[in-house]
Specification:
Length: 319
């Protein structure tokens, strides 16, 4: 009789042990099934929507002309939070926490939003380079007579270094404005023997950049800037303008605004329609870099973190 009682007690412990392992696994599966499909739909839906939107409005039909920073930074920063708050937030109500329930549930929203934001940013950058066509021309003057392209390969050109302009931009950035970015922009007109014009239309642009910490006093910052400027001016004296694979046209952007300021420093009568071309030494086929891999890599990392976070909260069945 005692043996039978011990066997039944042992069986009861086995059942309880199995249940203790089965419940968390079952709850985790329920959490994944309830939340993950919505997160995947939001992530890829946001990427596809804004890729198609930009292709139709900006790249394809040029309906909406906006600065490139809007697509590369502005939209990716703000757009993900709308679908996250509308569709993902209600799905997170099945998660329960011992303390700080609202705060911990917000951590899931931030993780999802950051994942979509980074992936959208990378997808927009990839779209920019992937759709950029390469146009081959014999001389600089041919560029104005042809439809605009992102990239150009010019058979022969000359840079007039005697007509050079420059401008500088200093800007604070960082979470607490702890860093200072110094940008210098140099421009020189591109000419050929067939394109003799009084006011140059096409300019060769070179951009230098340096970052320093913003804890220096004004005198130290001025010394850093002057040292940086002297080095850039020295580099421009021996700059090899023709040692390029192709040229990239600077699109409508803050960078284009700075370059045009430099053009006006050199030729005040120059208009806002001047074209700025930057040198590219890498082959045209390498223009996309690892952007495509970073799109899916950022999604994979974000989803992994999100799925790990789902281990700790409890699951409750909504009525």
């Amino acid at each position: 009789m005692a043996a039978k009682i011990r066997v039944r007690a042992f069986d009861l412990r086995v059942v309880v042990l199995k249940k203790s392992f089965a419940d968390p696994v079952d709850n985790y599966s329920k959490k994944l099934a309830h939340i993950l499909p919505t997160l995947l739909a939001i992530t890829f839906g946001t990427l596809i929507f804004f890729v198609l939107l930009r292709f139709l409005l900006d790249i394809g039909f040029h309906v909406l002309q906006s600065k490139e920073e809007v697509w590369h930074k502005g939209i990716p920063f703000f757009a993900p939070w709308i679908p996250v708050m509308i569709w993902l937030r209600p799905r997170l109500r099945v998660l329960t926490f011992d303390i700080f329930e609202d705060r911990r549930r917000s951590a899931f929203l931030v993780t999802a939003g950051a994942t979509i934001m980074i992936a959208t940013m990378m997808s927009q950058q990839y779209l920019t380079t992937a759709t950029g066509a390469l146009m081959e021309v014999k001389r600089v003057g041919d560029i104005e007579a042809m439809p605009p392209a992102r990239y150009y390969r010019i058979e022969s050109f000359t840079v007039n270094t005697e007509v050079q302009g420059s401008t500088a931009e200093l800007r604070e950035y960082g979470k607490r404005n702890e860093k200072l970015m110094m940008d210098l922009y140099f421009v020189c007109p591109m000419v050929d023997e067939f394109a003799k014009e009084q006011i140059p239309k096409i300019w060769y642009g070179v951009h230098f950049q340096k970052e320093i910490y913003n804890d220096l006093n004004p005198h130290q910052q001025e010394n850093e800037y002057q040292s940086f400027r002297r080095r850039c001016e020295y580099d421009m004296l021996g700059y090899q303008y023709t040692k390029v694979d192709h040229m990239e046209r600077v699109p409508l952007s803050d960078k284009l605004d700075r370059y045009r300021e430099a053009v006006r420093q050199s030729v005040p009568a120059a208009g806002e329609d001047c074209i700025i071309l930057e040198p590219v030494t890498k082959p045209y086929d390498a223009r996309n870099g690892n952007k495509l891999a970073w799109i899916f890599g950022s999604i994979a990392i974000g989803l992994t973190v999100f799925m790990i976070m789902l281990i700790w909260p409890d699951y409750r069945q909504l009525s």
